[in-house]
Specification:
Blueprint lengths: L2 E3 L10 E2 L2 H10 L7 E5 L5 E10 L2 E10 L9 E6 L3 H13 L4 E6 L9 H22 L6 E2 L3 E2 H8 L5 E5 L5 E2 L10 E5 L7 H9 L3 E4 L7 H16 L5
Helix pairs in contact: 2-3, 2-6
């Protein structure tokens, strides 16, 4: 059943006009017709099902709305702190992290980041990443959008995290321990991933001073986008919903 993101408030009965973007996608891209069943979600945990009752011009009306109780969120809260990488790789990380149930994503400007964003470009990229996350939620069935934070300099962010009592992990090839040897996270699990060239010595040293535990995922050095996906999958396997 096709799924569409509709910003709140989302009605739970009667009929509803799909927002312009969703209406265009339904009528022009998917070429849905009257009588087709659709799902809608508001990004805050609510979902409803309905039937297209009218397609006229740019308008798509969905009727026979039924509210659905569908919780597809992991019990593990995860903040992925991802060093900025090339635009294609960053989009891929946002998409896959959303599918893997991440709660928040914090893009970070690091010394070895390939991507360099001005304030204006950073705002546009953040908006673009939100759309990537929305599309991923439409595909994977999540009803809660992950929070995509504006990019920050890693040193600024690390100072903000210094006082955090959450479980904090930094992925390093020379990490001294594995995830499975760690206690179950209390609160949010924070996973810090470096850029294509990894972290500088100053960045990794600062992370350790701010309470991050250096971990490794096997004996191989992963690309930044692989490391993010592998780390999130490991977290969900150990303490999330992969065993449900």
């Amino acid at each position: 059943m096709p799924r569409f993101y509709c910003p709140p408030p989302l009605p739970n009965q009667g009929s509803f006009n799909l927002p312009a973007d969703a209406a265009h996608h339904a009528s022009r891209v998917l070429r849905l017709r009257e009588g087709d069943h659709v799902q809608m979600f508001d990004g805050q945990g609510h979902e409803c099902h309905g039937v297209i009752s009218d397609l006229s011009g740019k308008q798509v009306i969905v009727g026979d709305l039924i509210q659905v109780d569908a919780n597809r969120e992991s019990p593990l809260q995860v903040l992925l702190a991802q060093a900025l990488c090339s635009s294609e790789k960053m989009d891929w990380v946002i998409q896959k992290a959303t599918e893997l149930g991440v709660t928040e994503i914090q893009p970070l400007a690091t010394e070895r980041s390939v991507a360099r964003l001005s304030a204006e470009r950073a705002a546009k990229r953040t908006e673009h990443w939100q759309q990537v996350a929305i599309s991923a939620c439409e595909q994977c069935g999540r009803n809660v959008l992950p929070v995509i934070h504006p990019p920050l300099d890693i040193m600024v962010w690390l100072q903000q995290m210094r006082a955090s009592i959450n479980s904090k992990f930094i992925l390093l090839p020379q990490g001294a321990t594995s995830l499975q040897s760690q206690p179950e996270p209390q609160g949010t699990a924070v996973l810090l991933i470096g850029a294509e060239g990894g972290f500088s010595q100053a960045e990794s040293d600062s992370a350790l001073l701010c309470g991050f535990t250096p971990i490794r995922l096997g004996a191989r050095v992963m690309r930044t986008e692989t490391a993010a996906v592998a780390g999130l999958a490991a977290l969900q396997t150990l303490w999330g919903d992969f065993n449900n």
